[in-house]
Amino acid sequence: MKLETKLFLYGVLFFVPVGLIYAAWSGGEAVGTVGIPLVGGLVGMIGAYFALLSRRIDDRPEDDPLGEIEQGAGDQGVFSPWSWWPLVLGIAGAVTFAGLAIGWWLSYIGIAVGVIGLVGWVFEFSRGQHAH
């Protein structure tokens, strides 16, 4: 987690000064003057979380500069095989954002399909062939 921590904390050192420079050059334009330093704050919060997390977990193979590829072998997580729910969520997101251009009624349909897709994806392992 050390690399990720540095990456996000360096983002603070970039976005905050750039936001201040932008505020000076644009004459105080409201959106960029507020938005760019807020991005710096957001990446700072992520970097601080990663810094706290890296203290609690052991070093990963990616954190060892002399690490070998074999050290990262093995399970990388739990993934649901043959899942259609991410496709349902993608379609729901597309319908929801299309509703912003076409009409609000379409956004409501997309949100409803998205809720159904999210519940299906979360409880996918609770029933059927992959139940635990």
Automatic annotation (TrEMBL):
Q: Which UniProt keywords apply?
A: Cell membrane, Membrane, Translocase, Transmembrane, Transmembrane helix
In short, the EC number is: 7.1.1.9
Q: Classify the main location.
A: membrane
Reactions catalysed, as given in the entry: 4 Fe(II)-[cytochrome c] + O2 + 8 H(+)(in) = 4 Fe(III)-[cytochrome c] + 2 H2O + 4 H(+)(out)
| Gene Ontology CC annotation, any one | plasma membrane
Q: Name one Pfam family in it.
A: Cyt_c_ox_IV
Write out the similarity annotation: Belongs to the cytochrome c oxidase bacterial subunit CtaF family.
User: Quaternary form?
Assistant: Associates with subunits I, II and III to form cytochrome c oxidase.
Q: What does this protein do?
A: Part of cytochrome c oxidase, its function is unknown.
Please give the name of this protein. Cytochrome c oxidase polypeptide 4
Tell me the lineage of the source organism.
Bacteria, Bacillati, Actinomycetota, Actinomycetes, Micrococcales
The primary gene name is ctaF
